[in-house]
Amino acid sequence: MIRIKSKDELDMIRLSGAILARIMEVLRSKLKAGISTKELDCLAEDSISKEGALPAFKGYRGYPACVCTSINEEVVHGIPSERRVKDGDLVSIDLGINYKGYFSDCAITVPVGKVTGERKKLVEVTKKALQLGIKQAEPENHLSDISSAIQSYVEAEGFSVVRQFVGHGIGLNIHEEPEIPNFGQPHKGPILKPGMVLAIEPMVNMGTWEVEILQDGWTAVTKDRLPSSHFEHTVAVTESGPQILTKYG
Questions:
Q1: Global pTM?
Q2: Would you say residue 249 has pLDDT above 80?
Q3: How far apart (Å, rounded) are the C-alpha atoms in residues 1 and 4?
Q4: Comparing C-alpha atoms, which of 123, 101, 85, 156 is closest to residue 229?
Q5: Would you call 7 exposed, middle or buried from its count of C-beta atoms within 10 A (0-12, 13-18, 19+)?
Q6: Would you list the domain boundaries of the chain?
Q7: pLDDT tens per residue, range 69-99
Q8: Pick from 32, 30, 58, 34: which is nearest to 45 by CA?
Q9: Other C-beta atoms within 10 Å of 62: how many?
């Protein structure tokens, strides 16, 4: 069942999202060649604490860090380490927080230094795919209208959408119903209603859509080891249309 949030619940999720957006801006500003992903994780934890919130990922199903840091061919769930970011890397940061029992989730992919050609296009296409998916989060649309909008645009641009990982409902838990695939036919599945809150998150690969999990049990990488990109927003379905609750500029 997809939970419809009350006005008070939506107000608190919106506040959680605003806090998360501020934290993501801090991480984005510090994400430069030479920084380690562990340093990014420490910065995230410190920023979350200063905001009076809690990291939503740390300890979730045993995940050992606050933030997921996935580089180049890593799709999602990369574990922070002493690995240092290099010029030309595509670095995805995925972060969720719990503010007084209300959850928000957000992801960005940052091209570090000089990134051109297909790698730059991959990031731009993924970001636009998120925007197109969000536009479909209108009352009385079907859930799969989001999925179809993302897939059709991404594949028209020559890239592929990951099948193994999907978006999700969010708000009173970090993961709620429904699952939101980034692929599928339009006009299928549940009807969207005001009060639903969705974490929409296209994961787009330069090559094959297939992924595999590394030995750490978390890090997902593209099967062909070509680069991947990931963007995510927490979005409320409202009577006046979709509202992005994790707006990061």
A1: 0.96
A2: no
A3: 9
A4: 123
A5: exposed
A6: 7-244
A7: 999 999 999 999 999 999 999 999 999 999 9
A8: 58
A9: 7
